[in-house]
Amino acid sequence: MLAGEGDRVDRFIVLGQRLPRVVAAVLIGAMLAVSGALFQSLSRNPLGSPDIVGFTTGATTGGLLVILVSAASSTATIALGTTVGGFVTAAVVVVVAMRRGGAGENLVLAGVALSQTLSAVNDYLLSRATIQQAEVARAWQYGSLNAITWAQVRPLAVAAAVLIPMAIWLGRPAAVLELGDDAATSLGLGVGRLRAAMVGYGVVLAAVCVAVSGPIGFLALAAPQLARRLARTAGLTLGVSAAMGAALLVVADLLAQRLLAPFQIPVGLLAAACGGLYLMWLLGLRAPDAPGRL
What we know:
Blueprint: H1 8-43, H2 55-69, H3 75-99, H4 104-127, H5 131-142, H6 150-169, H7 171-177, H8 181-186, H9 191-213, H10 219-231, H11 238-258, H12 267-284
């Protein structure tokens, strides 16, 4: 079938619909997981993923503005909007956290606060849109792979091929940074530049995914932690995190297709439900005498 065998209908279903969906799930899952690993390492907090600290919500705000304001939105223009929204949100969160000392807990708290504000902004934008615009924006905001085509997968694959290796290259210096600023500086690392690079790559990775599929939660939060437990290491595991994120999203999308067949659940809704359960499990592992650490 992958070599072009079978009748026209079979080729259309397998090569035109199923295959691009699976490839997109692999790429988006891997990119979100790497983004989450970078931010968790940067904040030194298992809750420091882009969806928890508001970067994904800010990217969603940028995408919604493009969808609702632009007369001819496309994947490229939505990607630009999500990237700008993500960077603006990241800048605000980092500035607020630095004013409070820059600790990981401050980054998470500032991100959660800004995320709630931006969620209200997103709801307001939808309330002011026409019915047709609101339907398109709401379907995108749920996070779904139902309408993925090769036209969206190709630029996504190019972005993944460029961004994931560059982000993984940051893994070793980022692991040193987890030892503390003084230790990293004594080893010759430029702490400020490294942090800026981690934020930049993390935001772009998440923003590209949001542009293609809409916001999909849970993966950036859970995949790095599950990868660490699978690899049995306390250090940064970007490669294993990427593989774990890809596997999780492929399985989640398969469940979204099959649970209520023939109706297909947006995978973002299923991921959000799993994320809530995962957070409860994560809190259950918290040691009472060591707040903030797992």
